[in-house]
Amino acid sequence: MTIRAYAAARRTLTLADKLYEINWGLVLLVTLIACVGFAMLYSVAGASFSPWAGKQMLFFAAGMVLLVVAALVDVRIWLSLAYPAYAVSLLLLVVVLALGHSALGAQRWIAIGPLELQPSELMKIALILALARYLHGLGVEDVSKPVRLLIPLVMIALPALLVLKQPNLGTTIILVADGISLLFLAGLSWWWIVPALAGVAGAVPVAWRFFLHDYQKARVMTFLNPQSDALGAGWNITQAKIAIGSGGLTGKGFLQGSQSRLNFLPEKHSDFIVTNYGEEFGFVGCIALLLLFAVVIGYGVQIAMSARSQFGRLVAMGLVLNFFFYILINGAMVMGLIPVVGIPMPLISYGGTAMLTVMFGFGILMSIHVHRQVEIPRHSGGII
Amino acid sequence: MPLFDRKDKSRYASFTRRTLMVSGGMTAVLCALGGRLYQLQIRDGALYRTAAEDNRVNERLVAPPRGRILDRFASELANNRRNYRLLFVAEQANEKAETALNSIARVIQLSDQQKKRVLHDLSINKKFVPVVVAENLSWEAFALLNQHLPYLPGVQPDVGETRSYPYAEQLSHLLGYVAPVSPDDKKGGDDDDPLLDLPGFRIGKRGIEKQFDTEIRGEAGASRVEVNAYGRVIRELSRDPPVPGKDVYLTIDRELQSFTDQRLAGESAACVVMDVATGDVLALSSTPGFDPNLFNVGIGQDQWRALMTDDHKPLINKAIAGEYPPGSTFKPAMAMAAVQNGLSNLQVNCSGALQFGNNVFHCWAWKKGGHGHVDLKRGIQVSCDIFFYEVARHLGIDKMHDAAVALGFSSRTGIEIPSERPGLIPSTAWKLQKTGVPWQPGDSLSAGIGQGYVLATPIQLCTAAARIASGKSVSPRIVRVVGNQWQPRPSPAPLPFPEESFAAVQEGMNLVANVPGGTAYAWRITEPGFEMAGKTGTAQVRVITKAERESGVKNDASLPWALRDHGLFIAFAPVAQPKYACACVVEHNAPPHPQVQVARDVLLFAQQRDILGRRAAYPLDSADTTPQRDRA
């Protein structure tokens, strides 16, 4: 196997080979999940393709093109693009802070021609690529060296602080989680991890006191006691739980959900879309969706494990974890397990940028799968 | 050439180990999410399902249409009129509310005050809540508005229902009015109808509208509607239709009532017409009246003050709540008492004055030297005070009291209109208890001519006339049918007077009106067969001083209005076979005695119209199963 695999790695893959190598099963699963999203957007609009479901389908179609294109791009090209992408994203984050649009009290968007761009979304992928490239150049024993460790920490901290400043707590959390996860996977010593965890625990009160915005504190407070403000900020949490809970075992049936359709939920089409799914399809439907997500994640992990390059492995796992963190945070939020943070459910929540980013992520994941036999010399990693 | 260097192998092993750890972690977290789903959807599912229903379903009351009030011939006295309204929904207008109102004002009239109120209402309501811009529009204005609708975004024409009193002032005291529920209405606590909390709901506040409010009101329906988070109605889920209010049929004849009201116009007066056989009230007028429609739409501050300060007291139903000294109209009752107590043959010589103790009691005709020889019938005919002083002296107050009470004085007649007053016939016990002073024989003399402590309402005077005319203790009733139910009517018991007393008093009252020398002869009914019998009366409002008596200031017409005497008259007709009884009081009247003329005209009108000869149009009359038929 190894000989042939090596030969395959040496051989230049033709376009047909690459298309054949795309994991179409995974593509099918992703499409299936996206279809759940279309159905829900159709439902919350009152059985209508406008204003959301129709557009979302177009986003998905565009995302699919992006996925295939990204899958065909050689993994080494992704490696070479890692640092420039990171640099551009960082620059855009600075720009958006300086002159971006303000949506819902936060500066997250910049307009490029007709396109509305969210640099924080780009940064998620750019950060994963950049960190993977850096870590690709390090051996297990090197990762834990303080001098070596400082660089990736700065790479994480810069965008995280910029995004936090927007303010966008949800994305900040995901960036940091993605980054730390990659360090962990690269073999960061437990001697670093355990004290760091303790430090984070100690930092929470400090962050509360000095860094969190009032609306962020309010979200946390209402999360801890939703009844304290049942008609105000606690409304989201209470209504989301009512919608999901009222679905029961089998749900009220497609298009029969009343809570989200009747506007009891804000952001019913974006961050809280899953509540409508829970209401209409119940426990059975929710578990089925969780399983779908789990299988997708499983595919991702398998792709990571089968990649020959450390860069490929780390990028694959980074993308999988990024996807997972979305699911975790959004799921936990709508079920009242964590405070409300603005994180959409990937593939399901309405939104062009989020859809394209997720599909792009799957495209790179697919590229790693297609080029899994490609070897990349260690010196390609590190700094330059 | 090694495929992987040693370091890479260790990296791969470390990566795999940690990936498996992370995968385990992810699996655990996904399982936790599943557990949370179980918690929410299975364990607490029922709880959240209830909460969801509460969230989305709203019970809304549906107001029932109010029952009508009709007269004996089914003519509508109070009904529900279409209320052409104009609503404005802010969110449907694509311009500012001020601009929209100005566009509306170009089509229909809108005062600045109205505009201000609309803007205020808009500011306190959600954007999708319709706000009333104008109500009670004319059909023409409403049609015009509909025509302009394409150019008036946000404007919704709407047809509601509102109470309407087509005869306005004419039946105001009788019907009362409806008005929005006030906090006082709910304070009693015995009326916990949820309708009372419905915004804009109106209940009866006076008259029949108040007395029969619960019957006329109907029962609330309910509409279960699905609402969204902002309270906007998405759709109706189910509906219990309201039970419409019951119709109330009165014994009133609207034509007679209108006639009576018109005859009394301008006076502060009351007039009651009654069926002597049944006590059915055919007309019950009290002037001046008020426009009940004003109270429905909301009476203005100025209009209210005008009603309150008017010295003709338009808010008092004088027919049942006006207590007057009956004066000489009390004499037929005293004549009944006299015959009852064996004084039918009493003969008195009237010299114009009677010395009683230290006082001199004058006859009204004292200046002419008195009435001379007077018996009971002539005593009534010429209204001789001296004769009735003698009667009073013989009987004493308690026997007078008993007879008067038997004729219906001194207690509420029980007519189905709130705010009736009981009047007063004094007795020895009453005076001692009330004033602590024992009864003086002189008090009896004043009472004998309907003065002193004696007070009676027009409805009581009419009842007494009806009882004298029919020989039966009829009581006035004004409501005949409610919904599909006859109203109970107490069967008239025989009166404790001997047969000849009725004949004698009826004859005396006949002499009053139909024989020269009678006090009402000048205003008799001349149409053959329609003649009336009656009794005039004057109630002093002020005490005539001795000085005035001597200097001869007796011309009532020269006094200020408020100091003039009240004029009273009771009558029944036709004389031969009494059917109609009437009592008329005109406050502070001046000759030539309008009360007598009104009563005459009213009785003639009633007979010529033959109200009691016509078949009434009560809804139960046509049904064969009715337990009780109206008079044949």
Task: Please characterize this protein's 3D structure.
The complex is a heterodimer of chains A (384) and B (632). By secondary structure, chain A is mainly alpha-helical. Chain A has one domain (2-380). Helices cover 68% and strands 3% of the residues of chain A. Chain A has helices spanning 2-10, 15-21, 24-44, 53-72, 75-99, 119-136, 140-143, 146-165, 169-185, 190-210, 214-224, 234-245, 273-306, 310-334, 352-370, and strands spanning 101-103, 106-112, 115-117. Chain A has a 3-stranded antiparallel β-sheet with strand order 1-2-3. In chain A, helix 6 (119-136) runs parallel beside helix 9 (169-185). The model of chain A has no long low-confidence stretch (mean pLDDT 85). With 632 residues, chain B is an alpha+beta fold. Chain B is 37% helix and 18% strand. Chain B has 23 helices and 21 strands. In chain B, strands 2, 3, 4, 5, 10, 17 and 18 form a 7-stranded mixed β-sheet that branches. In chain B, strands 12-11-21-20-19 form a 5-stranded antiparallel β-sheet. In chain B, helix 14 packs across helix 17, helix 14 (331-340) runs antiparallel to helix 21 (499-514) and helix 16 (385-395) packs across helix 19 (441-448). The longest helix of chain B is centred in the first third of the chain and has 38 residues, at 6-43. Chain B is elongated. Chain B starts with 5 loop residues before the first helix and ends in a 23-residue tail after the last helix. Chains A and B meet through helix 9, helix 12, helix 13 and helix 14 of A and helix 1 and helix 2 of B.
Number of helices of chain B: 23
Per DSSP, the total helix count of chain A is 15
Order of helices and strands of chain A: HHHHHEEEHHHHHHHHHH
Question: Structural class of the secondary elements of chain B?
Answer: alpha+beta
Radius of gyration of chain A: 21 Å
| Strand composition percent of chain B | 15-25%
Number of domains of chain A: 1
The CATH architecture of the largest domain in chain B comes to 3-Layer(aba) Sandwich
CATH superfamily of the largest domain in chain B: DD-peptidase/beta-lactamase superfamily
Helical content class of chain B: 25-40%
Please outline the major beta sheet of chain B: 7 strands, mixed
Count the beta strands of chain B: 21
Structural class, from helix and strand content of chain A? mainly alpha
